[in-house]
């Protein structure tokens, strides 16, 4: 398998939401009856993501198998979504996408990347910790991070398990 990562093209945009949607079953299985509707709701289309920050795709023979969407917030780049098709997981594609997103953000002048995630879901908090992201204490959150967490709470995303903000510095 030869997967490459590149900036999304217009022809990729219709393939982005199905990649995110394919992961809903993993959350439903992991959380069981604690799964909330917002967690398994259809993801935004690629067209909705296009033009807000940047969108990278992982492609296997012209098939979009993963993506990373990064949005700007002051001096922070925020990893809004990382998704990889379940059949392509555990092959390093998520790691490659995150590293490519960090590099792109660094070149765009951002000094940090942040994200929100579930602390204890193996493919969430522990995955990002392995890439150098650390949990941000609630008292140290930036305004946009507090706003994101408030929005997540309003959607019920804290009900299945603890959600956290993580970030890491982007080395020059």
From TrEMBL:
Instruction: Cite the N-acetyltransferase domain residue spans from the record.
Output: 3-171
Q: InterPro entries of this UniProt entry? A: Acyl_CoA_acyltransferase, Bact_Acetyltransf, GNAT_dom
* Record bears the keyword Acyltransferase: yes
Please give the CDD domains that the UniProt record associates with this protein. Answer: NAT_SF
Q: Which UniProt keywords apply?
A: Acyltransferase, Transferase
Give the top-rank taxon of the lineage listed in the UniProt record for this protein.
Bacteria
- Name of protein: GNAT family N-acetyltransferase
Organism in which the protein naturally occurs = Nocardioides plantarum
């Amino acid at each position: 398998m030869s997967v490459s990562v590149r900036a999304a093209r217009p022809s990729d945009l219709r393939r982005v939401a199905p990649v995110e949607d394919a992961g809903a079953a993993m959350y439903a299985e992991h959380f069981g009856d604690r799964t909330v509707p917002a967690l398994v709701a259809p993801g935004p289309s690629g067209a909705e993501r296009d033009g807000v920050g940047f969108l990278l795709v992982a492609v296997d023979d012209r098939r979009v198998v993963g993506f990373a969407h990064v949005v700007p917030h002051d001096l922070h780049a925020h990893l809004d979504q990382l998704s990889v098709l379940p059949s392509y997981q555990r092959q390093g594609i998520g790691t490659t996408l995150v590293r490519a997103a960090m590099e792109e953000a660094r070149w765009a002048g951002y000094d940090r990347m942040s994200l929100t995630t579930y602390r204890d879901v193996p493919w969430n908090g522990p995955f990002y910790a392995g890439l150098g992201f650390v949990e941000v204490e609630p008292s140290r959150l930036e305004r946009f991070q507090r706003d994101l967490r408030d929005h997540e709470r309003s959607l019920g995303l804290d009900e299945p398990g603890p959600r956290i903000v993580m970030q890491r510095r982007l080395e020059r």
